[in-house]
């Protein structure tokens, strides 16, 4: 048997080494969804902005409701999307930032406080208190995805954005923890590893979509993002510039397609086409007169085609979308975040492009609705600039911001010198005495 010596195979042989940053400022985002796999490769330019170099997307196989259903099928789909992006970019990638939509992501807010004995707050103190916050996550069956500081406090005075350089007796922080079930996360990680890629970071899907679609003013004032995917609908609430809550609902665009397939007894592909081309949430006087050609399951599509009024299609689509928005409203009410989430709701995701969906959402959610699409990224083609690619674009923005805000940025020369055992002991002695 011949040995695979491709660059991707050679990367696999060196998996024992820890993941490293992409060379030359490259970042790669991989959106693994229930209906499509999307990969974007970008590079940070001298002015700090991103330029997309490679784009790849492929129909998703092996995913259901945000979770891995068939590893082999999903691996092939991921490979196809990544290879297309690599060929367009002319670069090979070794690490990707991926989205997390399965595993029922759950949000928790914790408050942590520690003594700093009156000395100046250093970067090491900030990292230490964040580590204390991570320790509040104790569920063995769930894995921590995010540990996001919301605000700091010095001697009980909260509202501090960056405590480094300040003095006080105690340092406190309010942290947003997001966790997900261990099994689905490990299944997805296994598929990514089988594609000879390392996971550089993970981001829950609605958080990534918000980073792509929202302006800084919207995040500061308070806004709710509803990301309508194929298998699930996810929610993120932003306030004062931070994401403070995320949730998922087990309903998405595929449920609408399945309803059409069963209601009109038509193949899945035909149901998807009817939804995309002729579907709507709102009726009009002409719907009863407009006839649609609907092929029947198991019959020759050309020989046995039924004609149904468009009004019948709308009657099938609308109840499922009403259910989706009612579930979103009920969740926001139950969590007490309806007011904190601001007066505006941003709809994004592939399923949010259905005709009339904004009007229906405004009726049920009683909020102004804006359709969210990725804010302009250099080199991002118009074909992938729609709401369906919000999550993938947001992963790129997260990766860029993470590189800028990496803990290495506040590592001092003293910290670098303390990399060894003696240095760590000296740093501990100075911090505590």
UniProtKB/TrEMBL annotation:
Region spans: Disordered: 1-24
Keywords: Cell cycle, Cell division, Cell membrane, Membrane
Gene Ontology cellular component terms for the protein in this record: cell division site; cytoplasmic side of plasma membrane
Biased composition (Basic residues): 8-20
Localization annotation: Cell membrane
InterPro entries: ATPase_NBD, Cell_div_FtsA, FtsA/MreB, SHS2_FtsA
Gene Ontology biological process terms in this record: FtsZ-dependent cytokinesis
Domain SHS2: 27-213
Signal keyword on record: no
SUPFAM superfamilies membership: Actin-like ATPase domain (SSF53067)
Annotated membrane topology: Peripheral membrane protein
Family membership: Belongs to the FtsA/MreB family.
Function: Cell division protein that is involved in the assembly of the Z ring. May serve as a membrane anchor for the Z ring.
Quaternary data: Self-interacts. Interacts with FtsZ.
Protein name: Cell division protein FtsA
Species whose genome carries this gene: Pararhodospirillum oryzae
């Amino acid at each position: 048997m011949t040995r695979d010596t491709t660059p991707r195979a050679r990367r696999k042989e060196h998996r024992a080494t820890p993941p490293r940053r992409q060379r030359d400022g490259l970042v790669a985002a991989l959106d693994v969804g229930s209906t499509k796999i999307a990969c974007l490769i970008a590079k940070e330019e001298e002015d700090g902005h991103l330029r997309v170099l490679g784009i790849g997307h492929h129909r998703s196989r092996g995913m259901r409701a945000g979770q891995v259903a068939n590893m082999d099928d999903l691996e092939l789909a991921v490979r196809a999307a990544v290879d297309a992006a690599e060929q367009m970019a002319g670069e090979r990638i070794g690490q990707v930032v991926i989205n997390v939509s399965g595993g029922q992501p759950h949000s928790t807010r914790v408050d942590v406080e520690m003594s700093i004995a009156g000395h100046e707050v250093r970067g090491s103190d900030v990292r230490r208190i964040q580590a204390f916050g991570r320790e509040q996550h104790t569920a063995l069956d769930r894995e921590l995805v995010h540990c996001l500081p919301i605000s700091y406090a010095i001697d009980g005075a909260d509202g501090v954005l960056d405590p480094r350089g300040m003095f006080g007796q105690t340092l406190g922080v309010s942290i947003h923890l997001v966790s997900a079930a261990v099994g689905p996360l490990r299944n997805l990680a296994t598929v990514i590893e089988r594609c000879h890629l390392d996971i550089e970071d993970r981001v829950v899907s609605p958080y990534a979509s918000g980073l792509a679609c929202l302006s800084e003013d919207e995040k500061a004032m308070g806004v709710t993002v509803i990301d309508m995917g194929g298998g699930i609908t996810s929610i993120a609430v932003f306030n004062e510039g931070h994401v403070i809550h995320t949730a998922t609902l087990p309903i998405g665009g595929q449920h609408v397609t399945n309803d059409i397939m069963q209601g009109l007894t038509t193949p899945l592909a035909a149901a998807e086409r009817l939804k995309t081309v002729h579907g709507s949430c709102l009726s009009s006087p002409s719907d009863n007169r407009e006839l649609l050609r609907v092929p029947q399951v198991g019959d020759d599509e050309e020989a046995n085609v039924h004609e149904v009024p468009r009004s019948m299609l709308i009657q099938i689509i609308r109840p499922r979308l009403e259910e989706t928005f009612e579930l979103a409203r009920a969740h926001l009410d139950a969590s007490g975040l309806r007011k904190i989430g601001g007066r505006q709701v941003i709809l994004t995701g592939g399923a949010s492009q259905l005709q009339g969906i904004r009007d229906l959402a405004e009726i049920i959610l009683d909020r102004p609705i804006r359709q969210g699409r990725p804010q302009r990224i250099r080199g991002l083609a118009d074909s992938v600039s729609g709401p369906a690619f919000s999550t993938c674009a947001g992963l790129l923005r997260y990766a860029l911001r993470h590189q800028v805000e990496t803990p290495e940025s506040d590592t001092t020369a003293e910290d670098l010198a303390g990399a060894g055992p003696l240095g760590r002991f000296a740093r501990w002695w100075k911090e505590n005495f």
